[in-house]
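Subject: sequence -> structure tokens, single chain

Hey, anyone have a minute? Need the predicted structure for the following. Not urgent.
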Amino acid sequence: MDVVERWVQLSYRRPVLTAGVVAVFVGACGVIALRFEQRGGRPGDTSTIAALIVVSTAAALTVKRTHPWWALAITTAGTVAYIAYSGQFNAAATLPLSVCLCTLASRFEARTAIAATAAVCVGLTCVAAILGPQWLLVERVGLIGWPLLGASIGGVTRARNRYVTAVETRAQVSAALYEYEAERRVTEERLRISRDIHDVVAHHLAALNLQIGTARHVLDRPELAAQALAGMHENSEAALREIKGLVGMLRAADDDPRGPVPGLGDVDALVDAALASGLDVRTIVAGSVRPATPDVELAAYRVIQEALTNAAKHAPGEPVTLTMTYRLSTLTIEVGNRIAAAGRRKTGGGFGLAGMSERVRAAGGHLDADDGSGGRFVVAVELPLAAYEVRSR
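Reply:
Had a minute. Here:
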């Protein structure tokens, strides 16, 4: 930290002390400057009264921060008093006034500072015209030139301070926005991971539960029990693979994910696994099948996976209909099944539907779940697809 920055910080902490130091320094410099040779070889002003006027005028600088307008009035009056006493021009007499205008311009708005400086300059010009008719033009200009210089320095200082403040404010806002964005991304990633874990674990555990129940009922038929055990083995291996892939994505960087992301191309394998676990699934595909963006494909896959899991959990033994309709710019997915007679499905007790809805919204679509009419539960999803490109030949 340099000397200027330390002085600025001290001026904010101890304004009276620093103002007193400035007043003493300006008074001493003014008295010394009075003694320099003046125009036409005339010796400097060495009178005691002139020195007292300059020192008294500089003393008003002690209140330039607490009472700036009083300080301006006193320094202006001191300058006029010196001109009336000596009848001559001496730049040293305007030094306290110049310092006061510098402080004023650095603290107040430009309009206020300009108005105050203009009033002082007009007043000094009138005083010079009345009390110093023999003055040269350069002396008349010099009388208002030093106060103008002080006000200009103060205006530049204020502009610089405002610029520094604006830069610091922008830096703080940028840092706050960066932290907010980082927290938002972390929250979204946590939600995404929780949905993935829920979908994977719930799906495979539901399938395993169904296959275990089947195996218990066919223990007297070894061939069917062996088939159920083989399905359980495949489901457990698939669950381990997907969980391993999720853990790998957690450890990998964002731009280097490990493992393939499931999509619409994996729906057939998902349905085959559901059929192998004993779920009766009928698949209907309408329209021209075409790929979608990775987020849409992942959302579609997870929705189908969760819907089949819920069907196996809440309506075992009931047939499930999976309908996928490809339109011009949308993909519609409907998964429906009859609700088991043992009890109607409760849609608000778990995280399945909430997770599906979040996924679909994140991919730009919307989800509807209806368990009302006809004793059927239907999950309907609409996801965006890229429209066909029409090319002219």
